[in-house]
Design goal:
- By secondary structure, the protein is an alpha/beta fold.
- The chain has one domain: 3-Layer(aba) Sandwich (Rossmann fold), CATH 3.40.50.
- It is built from twelve helices and eight strands.
- The strands form two sheets. Strands 2-1-3-4-8-7 form a six-stranded parallel sheet, sandwiched between helices. A two-stranded antiparallel ribbon has the order 5-6.
- Helix 6 (about 140-150) runs parallel beside helix 7.
- The longest helix is centred in the first third of the chain and has 24 residues, at about 25-45.
- Bound molecules: thiamine diphosphate.
Length: about 350
């Protein structure tokens, strides 16, 4: 059974968070995670209606990484992502309506109906680019950090990828280059232990990913990816390092996806992972454990949570209605954004 708990500042350590953070901030993190969960569940509920014209890779179970990370970033910092984009886009304040339009292949989608779920971009908030090619965004993020360095911009680049991303050659090249140039970049590895249905142990020798990354000569840490505050603090430190010229950081955050690699629903019954393993991780759901901490600390009540839930669902239903009422692309739109010399 794979489990990882961030012991120093784990769930037990949350009590101390009261003194370190403002109450509104602590509640905001909860709302942001709940909002992503509810949006994902609604996408999943409607997926088989076949109105969304896109593959999907849900982040249910992995909300704390996106929310904790983006809470430590400025709007002007750039975020890059992989095929599992929804949490990153929403946590970076990407526009929900434009996201759902994109997923319904409508012309007013965030990338004009060209990209679908795997290419959610909103440059107005620093959601800078994604790649469905495993590790494809990693060198792009390193390149954007080099730009910031050369142009003297006070800007940090962050790139999210999964554990399989560490197996691509370009990741090694990017870590090496980032170390050499002391680039203001954060490599954020969400280690959910599977690449589609292949467990980590069938793909990599026994090792700890963050220690492997440290071998490139950059700061490297592991944090509990189900603990939004641990993620926030790790990214805050990495951002500080990057802004002060201290160079790159690699963050490994063990997480678990509660759903199939792609599409709606869970696929554990196909036998590649143990349902008991899934259940063990569901027990440390990032949203429920955090809610218990907030409730015990007197920062939220069940009634307030229900109110928040209702408020978010109003927003979500309105955004779906908007997407479904939005225009489809037309034949003439095929020729937009095409360049030739
Ligand atoms: C270079 C490349 N190889 C294979 C694929 C097919 N593929 C798509 S997603 C995926 C699994 C990626 O796993 P990971 O990077 O750990 O992210 P996760 O899906 O677990 O979030 C694979 C192999 C691809 N898109 N690109």
């Amino acid at each position: 059974m794979i489990r990882y708990e961030y012991s120093e500042n784990g769930y037990q350590g949350w009590g101390a968070a009261r003194g370190r953070f403002q109450d509104e901030f602590l509640v905001r993190l909860f709302r942001d995670m709940l909002r992503i969960r509810l949006i994902e569940e609604e996408i999943e509920r409607r997926y088989h209606q076949d109105q969304m014209k896109t593959p999907i890779h849900l982040v249910i179970g992995q909300e704390a990484t996106s929310v904790g990370c983006c809470a430590a970033l400025r709007k002007t910092d750039l975020l890059y992502s992989s095929h599992r984009t929804h949490g990153n886009y929403l946590a970076k304040s990407g526009d929900l309506k434009a996201m759902l339009c994109e997923m319904h292949c409508r012309i007013n989608g965030c990338v004009g109906s060209r990209g679908g779920s795997m290419h959610l971009i909103d440059k107005s908030v620093g959601m800078a680019g994604t790649s469905a090619i495993v590790a494809g965004a990693i060198p792009i993020a390193a390149g954007s950090a080099l730009t910031a360095q050369l142009q003297g911009l006070d800007r940090v680049s962050v790139v999210f990828f999964g554990d399989a991303g560490t197996e691509e050659g370009v990741t090694s090249e990017s870590l090496n280059f980032a170390a050499l140039k002391k680039l203001p970049v954060i490599f954020f590895c969400e280690n959910n232990f599977y690449s589609v249905q292949s467990p980590l142990a069938t793909r990599q020798p026994p090792r700890e990913i963050y220690k492997w990354a440290a071998g490139y000569g950059i700061a490297s840490v592991r944090v509990d990816g189900a603990n939004v505050l641990a993620v926030y603090e790790a990214v805050r430190e990495a951002v500080k390092r990057a802004r002060e010229g201290g160079g790159a950081t690699f963050i490994e955050a063990p997480v678990y996806r509660f759903r199939a690699h792609g599409g709606a629903g869970d696929d554990s019954h196909t036998g590649y992972r143990d349902t008991a393993e899934l259940k063990a991780w569901e027990e440390v759901c990032p949203i429920e454990t955090y809610f218990r901490f907030l409730a015990d600390a007197g920062l939220i009540t069940i009634a307030q949570r229900e109110h928040m839930h209702a408020e978010i669902m109003l927003e979500v239903i309105e955004a779906f209605d908007y997407a479904l009422a939005s225009p489809n692309p037309e034949e003439k739109d095929l020729y937009a954004h095409i360049y030739s010399d």
